[in-house]
Amino acid sequence: xxxxxxxxxxxxxxxxxxxxxxxxxxxxxxxxxxxxxxxxxxxxxxxxxxxxxxxxxxxxxxxxxxxxxxxxxxxxxxxxxxxxxxxxxxxxxxxxxxxxxxxxxxxxxxxxxxxxxxxxxxxxxxxxxxxxxxxxxxxxxxxxxxxxxxxxxxxxxxxxxxxxxxxxxxxxxxxxxxxxxxxxxxxxxxxxxxxxxxxxxxxxxxxxxxxxxxxxxxxxxxxxxxxxxxxxxxxxxx
Length: 238
Prior knowledge:
Elements: E1 2-7, H1 12-21, E2 27-33, E3 49-53, H2 63-66, E4 71-74, H3 85-105, E5 110-114, H4 122-125, H5 127-143, E6 148-152, E7 157-158, E8 160-162, E9 168-170, H6 172-184, H7 186-189, E10 204-205, H8 206-218, E11 225-229, H9 231-235
Parallel strand pairs: 1-2, 1-4, 2-3, 4-5, 5-6, 6-11, 7-10
Antiparallel strand pairs: 8-9
Helix pairs in contact: 1-8, 3-5
């Protein structure tokens, strides 16, 4: 069995990644999160995943999980909103960097990080988020010297999010039609002025993002070097 360890498996993208990994008979999926237990919306596949309690910033809490792992997925962070720069940088950067470095020490063969397609203006609107993501990408570049490193860079993601109490928030009714319209209009939106960079990227479904992550974990073409998979690659999996 291939052991694949997912950090942030209780979250929006991470739980969808685990759902897909749970259907692959050759995979032993492990979720590492602060809760260490399956959230309610994962009940349908919870028994096919090993749930562990761990803190990204304290590798002693999850080093055992990384031993013998073939891939690690890092889907941890906070949303790109204005606020405390250092806190956002820590949430999106230091957490990711710590896991990537621990995976290097454990000689894990592959690291897949869920990042974002970042427009230039995001630096000013959500500076901590942008800095944190860059810290993570830099660490991933170091990982690529000894294994396969993949960053998945979606635009806005839609699907059904769940609050911590388990309340579902469906985003597809609004974002799916918008995504379709922007995909159809892509030849035109590419001509838009640079200050609109990123705003006109079609939103992507969480299922396609998760499938891109799973493919990055399992397919031979991502075995070595550094690869960035953006919106176009994700949309191919819709």
